[in-house]
Amino acid sequence: MQTLNVKRELIQWAIERSGRSTDVLARAMPKIAQWESGKAHPTLRQLEALAKKTWTPLGYFFLAEPPEERLPVPDFRTGGDHPIPRPSPNLIDTLYTMQRRQAWMREYLIEQKQEPLQYIGSAKVDGNISAVAKRIRQALGIADSWASRISTWTNALTVLREAAEAAGILVVINGVVGNDNHRKLDPTEFRGFVLSDVYAPLVFVNGSDARSAQMFTLAHELAHLWIGEGGLFDLPELQASDNQSEQFCNQIAAEFLIPATELRAFWGDAQRTNEPFQAIAGHFKVSPVVAARRALDLDLIAKPAFFEFYRAYQADERRQAARSKGGGDFYNNQNVRLGKRFARTVMQAAKEGRLLYRDAYALTGLHGSTFDKYAKALGVRA
């Protein structure tokens, strides 16, 4: 069978980019080491298999040299103690998928004569932090003391997500690429990103991240929309990079979740308990990690105390996650992986004949009876 003279540099690049080792790939492609060294060349069918296994667009193997992949959004990641590596295929595929969804939703809303969202870009980076946090609460239709009415901080995350969707924001929380549970998103690579737009703003929270951090990430992303700026970020230890807008968004997120005046008033009561951060968490309906971070920001505790608590809590959360069976109901997962508002809009358009089912399947990642069953669960009818 005829082979293709693919440059070994491109094969090496695809393997390295995928993050998978040659030994692992060799289980399905025994000759991969020979292709990598240039001693042999793959057939078209073998190259297609390699492209699939490494999540590489097939056309890249026919380029003159490996491409330099650029992120389509500003990169506000800090990298922590290590340099920021090249973006993974999982991150790139997720970003482009979200951009396609946003583009479709934007076009649809414009066709439906939807008015632009006035709050997008309504705040300035040097604005009053407390005032901006209050305006976000007002736009989301939640009271200043909204969290006090909710039983747990995990429920508060759901309430915040649903309030953001009701305000016109596409909210996605997903820990894998689409519905592929074999392609887990790495929270050390990114915690979330924002695609700002006046018609279809989109925020993405990495669902593989600790649940204790997800609410802060979402609040941080909401702040990004108010300054009208998209971006990708990692927020190591819930701390933003030195970028001015990132610092501002972090301050807004902290004030939105735990107002400074209220925490200072409550701090004395919290200190009289055996677990002050848990007390703050219970009062404000945030995770204990967010509570500790806010106490540090307000100079109520020193850095060593925060980092000791943060690392112990994260280790405990990882142990709990390892014991958890995970999974959950597939259709309930779609409520956060797709977002109810986006899914319902796409499915209604398909049912009404304004969108080809083929395109609806591509936008949602759901097909056939799975698509129909979820549409029915959302109350979408022809």
Characterise this structure:
This protein is of the alpha+beta class and 382 residues long. The chain has three domains: 8-62; 89-323, no CATH class; 330-377. Helices cover 53% and strands 6% of the residues. It has 16 helices and six strands. The protein has helices at 8-18, 22-26, 32-37, 44-54, 89-111, 129-140, 153-166, 211-226, 244-257, 260-271, 276-284, 288-297, 303-323, 330-351, 357-364, 368-377, and strands at residues 170-174, 176-177, 180-184, 192-195, 202-206, 231-233. A four-stranded mixed beta sheet has the order 1-5-4-6, with helices on both faces. Strands 2-3 form a two-stranded antiparallel ribbon. β4 and β5 form a beta hairpin. α6 crosses α9, α8 crosses α9 (244-257) and α14 (330-351) packs antiparallel against α15. The protein is globular, with a radius of gyration of 23 Å. The mean pLDDT is 91.
Q: What pattern of helices and strands is seen along the backbone?
A: HHHHHHHEEEEEHEHHHHHHHH
Shape: globular
Radius of gyration: 23 Å
Q: Taking strands numbered 1, 2, ... along the chain, how are they ordered across the largest sheet?
A: 1-5-4-6
β-strand percent reads 5-15%
Segments where pLDDT lies below 50 for 5+ residues? none
Count of DSSP-assigned helices: 16
Extended strand count: 6
Largest sheet: 4 strands, mixed
The residue fraction in helices comes out at 40-55%
Overall mean pLDDT score? 91
Structural class: alpha+beta
User: Termini separation (Å)?
Assistant: 50 Å
Number of domains: 3
